Amino acid sequence: MSISFGVTLYSMTNEWLSGQYSLAEMVDEVGRRGIGPGVEVVGYQSFRGFPSRVDKQELKSFREALDRNGLTPTCLGGNADIALRKDAWLDTGQAVEYMRPQIELAADLGFPIVRTQIGLAPPVLEKLEPIAARLGIHLGMEVHAPEGPNTPKILETREAYRRINSEWLGFIPDFSSSMRGVPRGMQAKFREYGLSQAGVDLLVECWHSVGEPIERYKRFIEAVAPLGESEVATSRAMMVFGMFGRQNPEDWRDILPQVRHIHGKFYDIEDDLTSPSMDYAKFMDIFSTPNRTISMSTEWEGHAYADLEEVDAFNYVAKHQAMCRQFLN
Amino acid sequence: MTLEATAFGGDPFRRTATGYEIEVRVPSYRSLPLSCIEGIGVTLAGKVPPPDSLRFRVNGHDYTPAELAEAADEQWFVLDPLTIVVPELPGVADGGEIDLEVMLEMRVPYVIFEDGSPMIQKTSLKRKVSVQ
Question: With 80 as the cut, is the pLDDT of residue B4 above it?
């Protein structure tokens, strides 16, 4: 079995937002840095007018950039914007029609997989399956913190998949679900928000404690109360409990047969090519067991707290891939 | 957060013949539908213009606050500015430096919590600007 490497352009969110690159130029840079061959994009990030009103020339330029760099489109990151309208969430029919043009554009661009999200309930998945099957597109539901392979919503999806019984429906594991620590960069950000070191220590301690994210967050709020910390800082803390999951990495084995693509999420990486907040040795061990190729997008999300000047995202992606190769050998 | 840095660009504020214009970018890694704007508030030199007096210019159209909520088919693309058009405010003198604050409240459309409620992200942008 092998993991084929690549990158989601989401890793270069800081660079993209700075306006330094056109989309084609960013793809060229991926080629130049050798961090393909797989390329994933988030539709709503990279394409103005996504999905139905993207300029045809922009699509052509993107495809040409992939081709001239020998890069392969692996996954189009779709979004299930169920809370699109304030007065009422999208119903089944509306959700299907929201996803349809995203899947159709993926087929036009040569992406074999579309990332879907947990907001798509089983009735929607039942109606999307024939659309995906007709176009030959695999719909991979992202399993992302705070979910995991055995949380109630994912179990509900697994049951729906069992009932629908289609090769066109699967999962995209995101390693944010199964972390072993709070990234140091995020801890430092909370110090910038005004949390004291004692407050940060309590945040980390509560993150490691037992319970659902909301329970551990409440435990933190209670524990930190006597310290008189800034409300701005403590009100943001729920993000830590929701964004950095504590699921057991071994649980990924339960959905492995339905995985064609992975989000190699990471935040921190040391010079010795280890990631303190994530057990990549374990991840590579698990995902190298199937007897087939699974594509992986390196997904650096440290731009949630690190600015453009602090990190060269392309370089971080290269280090992540080197780390993974090290653990695979 | 880095999104706060990019939401307010280098020079977001200008004085116009009828008031002021403030440019902001969507405080997100991705484009969001205009209907996901829960609220945009402005404070200039401590003064708050009536919310209904604001207009929001994006994709070549000026929207009222009520029209934004209906514009589910229009995207605020991640690289494009939205211009907040503010009418003249009494008591804000020309020629000086004042405090500008913009509060952006966005509904994250793909996150729904266990109780069925949405995730709302609030971003506060502050800058000292020259009124001239």
Answer: no
> What tokens does B8 get?
């307010």
Burial A36-53 (b: 16+ CB within 10 A, else e): bbbbbbbbbbbbbebbee
pLDDT in tens, A303-315: 999 989 999 999 9
Residue A146 phi/psi, 5-degree rounding, is -90, 10
By CA distance, what is A49's nearest residue in B? B75
pTM score, two decimals?
0.96
Out of A10, A14, A89, name the one closest to residue B2 (CB): A14
Contact B35, B71 (CB under 8 A): yes
Task: For chain A, list residues with pLDDT below 70.
Answer: 1
> Which contiguous run of DSSP H or E holds residue A22?
none
Report the alpha-carbon distance of residue A167 to residue A292 in Å, rounded: 15
**Nearest CB partner across the interface for A307, out of B2, B33, B112:** B2
Cis peptide before A51 (omega within 30 of 0): yes
Contact B110 A86 (CB under 8 A): no
Contacts of A182 (CB under 8 A, 6+ apart): A203, A204, A207, A240, A244, A277
Contact B33 A84 (CB under 8 A): yes
Contact indicator for A1, A293 with CB cutoff of 8 Å: yes
Query: Annotated active-site positions of A, please?
Result: 144
Q: What is the CA radius of gyration of chain B?
A: 15
Burial class of residue A255 (count of CB atoms within 10 Å of its CB; 0-12, 13-18, 19+): buried
CB A78 within 8 A of CB A113: no
Contact B38 A305 (CB under 8 A): no
Whole-number Å distance between alpha carbons of A220 and A12: 32
ipTM of the complex: 0.94
- DSSP for A88-119 reads S---HHHHHHHHHHHHHHHHHHT-SEEEE-TT
Bridge-partner residues for B39, per DSSP?
Answer: B105
